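TA notes, week 10

Several of you asked for a full example with nothing omitted. So below is the full record: structure tokens for the whole chain, then the designed sequence directly under it. When grading your own attempts, check the secondary structure regions first.
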């Protein structure tokens, strides 16, 4: 009986946690605008989702990328955390450079 309850409790916990884990997955999209003064960019996903993302000195930029190299049209892969109703980039990688 205890084993059955333990299995049931584990299954219930996983069922509740999966939607939360899905929200923590990395995202992808194209930069549509960048505001260097506000340290913010807007990225649009393939499904039309848009994210207003802020970067800080703790944002990890991959492949020796600098923020000043980014421009609208670049494709990016990113992770973020949400604090005080803002999305802050934790990691950003350019996957495709926009054509000049």
């Amino acid at each position: 009986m205890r084993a059955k309850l333990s299995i049931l409790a584990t299954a219930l916990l996983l069922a509740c946690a999966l939607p939360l884990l899905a929200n923590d997955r990395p995202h992808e999209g194209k930069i549509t605008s960048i505001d260097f003064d506000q340290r913010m960019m807007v990225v649009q996903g393939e499904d039309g989702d848009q994210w207003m993302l802020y970067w800080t000195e703790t944002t990890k930029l991959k492949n020796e990328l600098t923020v000043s190299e980014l421009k609208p049209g670049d494709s990016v892969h990113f992770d973020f955390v949400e604090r005080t109703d803002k999305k802050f980039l934790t990691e950003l990688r350019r996957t495709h450079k926009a054509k000049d």
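The first strand starts at residue 27 and ends at 35. Use that as a sanity check on your answer.
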